[in-house]
Amino acid sequence: MNLGTDPGIGAPTLETTPTAQAILNPVFNLLPSFRNFVVPAHSGACPKPSMTIFNKYMVMDAHCTVLENIRPTLYAVMFFVWLLLGALIVLAA
Fold first, then answer.
1. H helices of 1-93, where?
2. Burial level of 33, CB count in 10 A (0-12/13-18/19+)?
């Protein structure tokens, strides 16, 4: 079998392998302005609507007491809900 004359092409060369830091550096420096971001302090207050009905002034604040009493349970339930939602988003990808 005759393949013809030698064209004089040399052997191929490989690029240098990038390091893990060179690969991840663009991801870590994606938003440099957010590197010093701090969540501001927040203090919430339960809304207490008030109204006058039949010449009687009423303030609706019973829901504040109920929600304050179940705060630890509500935190735990909502943590589980957000954890489950995040897991579903990751697993659906």
1. 20-28, 62-69, 71-92
2. exposed
C-alpha dist (Å) from residue 36 to 21, 32, 80: 21, 8, 29
Q: Interior CA angle at 70 toward 39 and 72, to 5°?
A: 50
Phi-psi region of 2 (alpha: psi -120 to 50; beta: other; left: phi over 0): beta
Q: What is the pTM of this model?
A: 0.43
Q: What is the pLDDT of residues 18-35, one digit of tens each?
A: 999 999 998 888 888 878
pLDDT of the residue at 35: 80
| DSSP sequence for 42-64 | --------EEEETTEEEE--HHH
